[in-house]
């Protein structure tokens, strides 16, 4: 550690990390485009120039991402000189940047916008037309490249070289005709392409699935944890006007995922945006499953549990630790061991983030004392049993819709899920919220706790699983009456 | 403190009756003067380009809507009257509104949307009447809001004129203040470098 | 006609007289009520004109059907009786305010003897009684009860204050009014309104009108009648800025309208009284032998001028303060009326009654 002075404040800086990291670590904002803490530094954008004075030499303007702190360094990020230099660099970056902001999806979270506003280069002096380039250059199934908007920071190029360690992009052509392109124009591959859209400081790389879907300031953003695999990447869930989830984006968490997330998780909002959610309760009568009040549904589940002391209690691996505790309490009262559906590896495992295990809370439930059970084994046990209660979102999907449908009608199934199973054995189905509609904790494969949080309200008539479990507890019911 | 001196009243004024007679004569004369009431539905209000009526969307001369659904009017709207959903198009301008609703019951006709619009797509028309049979019918969708540019030409030219007045002026000192907040005051030379147009340069001596 | 009369056990003349009374009384009463309706329109029209406006002009041509529309509205509106109101008194009060005004119309002679179908049907008045002025003052004073009751029964502080003010004001001004009228009575030597009118109409000379003998009394009566009818500049019973709407704050629909019928009827009566006492009643200038219908027209014209004066004053003058009202009533009006009466008495004592040789 060395002592340096930044804007008159003495701070401790790590001499192995660039000056810009020390500044950012101490709440000193230094504009930057090409620098990213997760990537190597190239110093190509020249936006992070600050005035550095060392020893007896007069202050010089240097790029903070390629300068390393040294003892006694005096840094001024707000000096007239550094502002003027940054403004001039910015003017050149903006020389060929189209005035696309009203159309551009990045508007609102765009570094170019923010720093332009901050540095005050509001009018250009250039009289020449901007260079025309390709506006809609597809880079595979995930990414669209707008070559005009690109400021050639090369973050995306470095990302593929350094994170998935498989270079796919490069800066081709020369001078003002330089563009980002993939090798031989091949579409991008891999499970981590989406990250370059987050990395891009401007709107050059956009996600095909998010393109023109929403203005970013209209999105309600909430920190959460990705449930797509047992890695439990820290993410941010973004919802448009309390309705559909529009985007999952990684959130920096050095202990789990760094700055990245895989595309499987990034685009896994089909489940949370699914229509026709199960609200209230469905109870099997003579006309099949009929919609009833939740109280009637709970009464039916309780009747089932009372009639069948050996009923299996099966949790979904999407149950949070808190929900797991509530299910465990119910199992303990009944003297049984709860199970949780644990499908085998789904083949998506890679050596970066994805664990290939589709159970986000496997570790959390196992630590509580739940028995993991394979889907096929579960189907066998269900067929052998007389009754079972399935708890949690996506439990039907993971246990296998077909397997449940194949169960003989002699088995009574009570299901708490977002959608009712199409199975003759199902006697009761009660709706529960998805993981973007409730709060709780997942424990990932390494034992890190990750919060999930309610970003939007559950559909009307849907109550939390914990509330259903409390209602199932006869003692609570008795105390209430 | 202000001391108001009461006027000394003459005897006639103190008698009150002559003053009453004077007052009566005034009101009697006024009875026959020209009425200033405007008989509204028959005599509509004069509409000029300054009239700030309900917002309307411009359809350009090539038949396409000028709006790119950037959402700035939605963000500027103080009454949260505007809702926009965007979508992709094949036109050179890649984005257009799939849904553009203005809740006319919420709209306060402030004109912020017009001011915020970077694409000259929304203007305050001279349409003022607003009546319907249900609340739902007063949430205007894109089809109800579209107007050909020709119909709003006067207003568009007026707004352009107003905006040009701002453009030709020297850069306001707002950004200089921002830098001041960071402990840095720009010198006269850097501030001068932003005065881009010749008119601004010509105005400088006056400003100084 | 005689056959029908015989069947009813009376003579033809009796039946004719009875029918005449029925027709006459009905016409007069309906006429007075309609004055109220017309006056609402006049009030709004005149006030509008004085303020450069058009006034009501949407219902019927020039807004002429506005009173009808208002009437329909009043009938269909809900009568709201406030919580805690004294219900019988609350319902009685509008009637108490309107009925005296209608009753007093009985003694107003609208025209000289009516000659129709070659027959003299007597003067155009419901009751040609000798104590006309006494009756009129006695019944007229009762209208204050309506206002007080309304104020009391509404269970509202605004109403109560309005009622209190109205009572104080009416009692104060009644005194001056009576004294002013007494001067005319002394001059005429009669309290029969028809005789007073006839006295002024006999020669056809407008200078015979008592206004030219008693201008001060005429003025005092005018001012007092503003106060008596609760009109501007003395409308303290309503006084919107201070008391919301005074005694009728809690009234709605037809109940509220009846107060206004009462107010306008009272205005009509006071106007008619003033015309009879000071402006020669049915006298047509320079036509001592004018037929009765001309006299009736002249009477109506004079009353109209008076009614217009009421409206005109209302939309010209600001409201007095209550202390000013009392001061004027007791310290200006009353001494002036007394002095006027004394002077009249002295003149009569010195020079004898007018017209006497």
Description:
The complex is a heterotrimer of chains A (481), B (208) and C (357). By secondary structure, chain A is of the alpha/beta class. Chain A has helices spanning 19-25, 80-95, 111-119, 155-162, 195-199, 263-266, 294-307, 321-334, 362-368, 375-384, 395-399, 401-405, 465-472, 474-480; strands at 2-6, 9-13, 49-53, 60-63, 74-76, 137-139, 143-145, 169-172, 179-182, 205-207, 219-225, 234-240, 245-250, 281-285, 288-292, 312-315, 339-341, 371-373, 387-391, 412-416, 426-430, 440-443, 449-452. Chain A contains 14 helices and 23 strands. In chain A, the strands form six sheets. An eight-stranded mixed sheet of chain A has the order 15-14-21-20-19-16-17-18. In chain A, strands 2-1-5-3-4 form a five-stranded mixed sheet, with helices on both faces. In chain A, helix 8 (321-334) runs parallel beside helix 13. With 208 residues, chain B is an alpha+beta fold. Chain B contains nine helices and six strands. In chain B, the strands form two sheets. Chain B has a three-stranded mixed sheet with strand order 4-1-6. Chain B starts with 10 loop residues before the first helix and ends with a helix. Mean pLDDT of chain B is 78; it is low at 171-208. Chain C has helices at residues 2-7, 12-50, 66-76, 87-104, 132-153, 157-188, 193-201, 215-228, 240-243, 253-278, 292-314, 322-351; strands spanning 113-116, 119-123. Chain C has a two-stranded antiparallel sheet with strand order 1-2. The longest helix of chain C is centred in the N-terminal third of the chain and has 39 residues, at 12-50. Chain C is globular. The model of chain C has no long low-confidence stretch (mean pLDDT 83). Chains in contact: A-B, B-C. Chains B and C meet through helix 2 of B and helix 2 of C.
């Amino acid at each position: 550690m060395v002592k340096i002075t930044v804007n008159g404040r003495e701070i401790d800086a790590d001499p192995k990390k660039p000056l810009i990291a020390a500044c950012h670590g101490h709440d000193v904002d230094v504009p930057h485009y090409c620098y990213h803490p997760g990537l190597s530094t190239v110093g190509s954008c020249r936006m992070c120039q600050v005035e550095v004075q060392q020893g007896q030499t007069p202050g010089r303007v240097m790029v903070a991402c390629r300068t390393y702190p040294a003892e006694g360094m005096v840094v001024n990020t707000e000096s007239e000189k550094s502002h003027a230099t940054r403004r001039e660099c910015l003017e050149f970056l903006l020389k060929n940047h189209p005035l696309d902001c009203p159309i551009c999806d990045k508007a609102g979270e765009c570094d170019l916008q923010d720093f332009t506003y901050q540095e005050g280069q509001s009018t250009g002096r250039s009289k020449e037309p901007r260079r025309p380039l390709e506006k809609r250059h597809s880079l595979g199934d995930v990414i669209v490249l707008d070559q005009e908007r690109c400021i050639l920071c090369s973050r995306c190029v470095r990302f593929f070289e350094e994170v998935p360690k498989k270079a796919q992009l490069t800066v081709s052509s020369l001078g003002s005709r330089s563009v980002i392109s993939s090798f031989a124009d091949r579409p991008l591959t891999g499970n981590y392409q989406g990250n370059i859209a987050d990395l891009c400081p401007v709107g050059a790389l956009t996600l095909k699935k998010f393109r023109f879907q929403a203005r970013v300031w209209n999105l309600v953003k909430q920190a959460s944890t990705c449930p797509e695999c047992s890695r439990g990447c820290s993410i941010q869930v973004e919802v448009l006007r309390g309705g559909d989830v529009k985007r999952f984006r990684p959130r920096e968490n050095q202990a789990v995922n760094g700055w990245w997330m895989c595309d499987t998780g990034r685009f896994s909002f089909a489940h949370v945006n699914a229509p026709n959610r199960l609200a209230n309760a469905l109870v099997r009568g003579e006309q099949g499953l009929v919609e009833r009040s939740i109280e009637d549904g709970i009464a039916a589940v309780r009747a089932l549990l009372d009639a069948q002391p050996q009923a299996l209690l099966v949790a979904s691996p999407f149950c949070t630790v808190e929900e797991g505790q509530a299910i465990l309490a119910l199992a303990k009262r009944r003297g049984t061991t709860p199970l949780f559906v644990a499908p085998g590896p789904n083949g998506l495992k890679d050596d970066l983030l994805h664990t290939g295990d589709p159970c986000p809370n496997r570790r959390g439930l196992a630590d509580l004392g739940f028995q993991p059970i394979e889907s096929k084994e579960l189907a066998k046990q269900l067929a052998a049993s007389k009754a079972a209660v399935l708890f949690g979102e996506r439990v039907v999907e993971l246990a296998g819709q077909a397997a449940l449908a194949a169960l003989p009608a002699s088995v009574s199934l009570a299901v708490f899920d977002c959608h009712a199973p199409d199975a003759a054995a199902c006697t009761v189905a009660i709706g529960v919220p998805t993981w973007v509609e409730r709060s709780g904790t997942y424990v990932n494969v390494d034992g890190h706790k990750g919060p999930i949080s309610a970003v939007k309200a559950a559909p009307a008539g849907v109550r939390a699983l914990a509330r259903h479990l409390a209602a199932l507890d006869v003692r609570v019911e008795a105390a209430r009456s | 403190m202000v001391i108001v001196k009461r006027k000394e009243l003459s005897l006639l004024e103190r008698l009150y009756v002559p003053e009453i007679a004077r007052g009566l004569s005034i009101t009697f004369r006024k009875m026959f003067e020209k009425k200033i009431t405007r008989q509204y539905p028959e005599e509509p209000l004069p509409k000029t380009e300054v009239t700030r009526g309900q917002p309307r969307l411009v359809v350009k001369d090539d038949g396409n809507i000028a709006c790119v659904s950037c959402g700035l009017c939605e963000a500027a709207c103080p009454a949260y009257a505007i809702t926009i959903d965007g979508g992709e198009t094949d036109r050179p301008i890649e984005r257009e509104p799939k849904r553009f609703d203005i809740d006319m019951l919420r709209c306060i006709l402030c004109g912020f949307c017009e001011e915020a619009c970077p694409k000259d797509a929304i203007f305050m028309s001279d349409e003022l009447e607003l009546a319907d049979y249900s609340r739902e019918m007063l949430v205007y969708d894109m089809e109800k809001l579209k107007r050909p540019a020709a119909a709003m030409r006067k207003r568009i030219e007026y707004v352009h004129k107003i905006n040009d007045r701002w453009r030709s002026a020297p850069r306001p000192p707002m950004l200089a203040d921002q830098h001041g907040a960071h402990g840095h005051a720009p010198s006269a030379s850097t501030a001068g470098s932003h005065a881009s147009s010749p008119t601004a340069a010509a105005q400088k001596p006056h400003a100084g | 006609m005689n056959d029908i009369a015989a069947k009813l056990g009376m003579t033809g003349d009796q039946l004719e007289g009875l029918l005449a009374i029925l027709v006459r009384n009905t016409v007069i009463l309906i006429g007075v009520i309609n004055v109220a309706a017309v006056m609402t329109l006049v009030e709004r029209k005149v006030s509008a004109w004085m303020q450069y406006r058009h006034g009501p002009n949407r219902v019927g041509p020039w807004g002429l059907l506005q009173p009808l529309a208002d009437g329909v509205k009043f009938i269909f509106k809900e009568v709201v009786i406030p919580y805690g109101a004294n219900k019988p008194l609350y319902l009685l009060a509008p009637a108490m305010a309107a009925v005296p005004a209608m009753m007093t119309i009985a003694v107003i002679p609208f025209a000289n003897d009516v000659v129709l179908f070659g027959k003299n049907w007597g003067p155009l008045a419901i009751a040609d009684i000798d104590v006309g002025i006494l009756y009129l003052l006695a019944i007229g004073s009762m209208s204050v009860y309506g206002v007080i009751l309304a104020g009391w029964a509404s269970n509202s502080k605004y109403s109560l204050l309005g009622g209190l003010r109205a009572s104080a004001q009416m009692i104060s001004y009644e005194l001056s009014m009576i004294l002013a009228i007494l001067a005319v009575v002394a001059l005429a030597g009669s309290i029969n309104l028809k005789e007073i009118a006839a006295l002024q109409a006999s020669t056809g000379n407008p200078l015979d009108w008592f206004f030219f003998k008693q201008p001060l009394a005429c003025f005092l009566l005018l001012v007092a009648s503003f106060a008596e009818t609760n009109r501007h500049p003395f409308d303290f019973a309503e006084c919107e800025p201070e008391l919301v709407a005074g005694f009728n704050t809690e009234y709605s629909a037809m109940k509220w309208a009846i107060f206004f019928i009462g107010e306008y009827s009272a205005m009509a009566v006071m106007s008619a009284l003033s015309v009879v006492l000071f402006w020669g009643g049915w006298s047509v200038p320079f036509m001592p032998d004018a037929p009765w219908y001309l006299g009736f027209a002249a009477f109506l014209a004079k009353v109209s001028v008076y009614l217009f004066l009421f409206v005109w004053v209302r939309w010209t003058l600001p409201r007095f303060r209550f202390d000013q009202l009392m001061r004027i009533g007791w310290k200006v009006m009353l001494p002036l009326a007394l002095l006027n009466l004394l002077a009249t008495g002295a003149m009569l004592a010195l020079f004898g009654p007018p017209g006497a040789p």
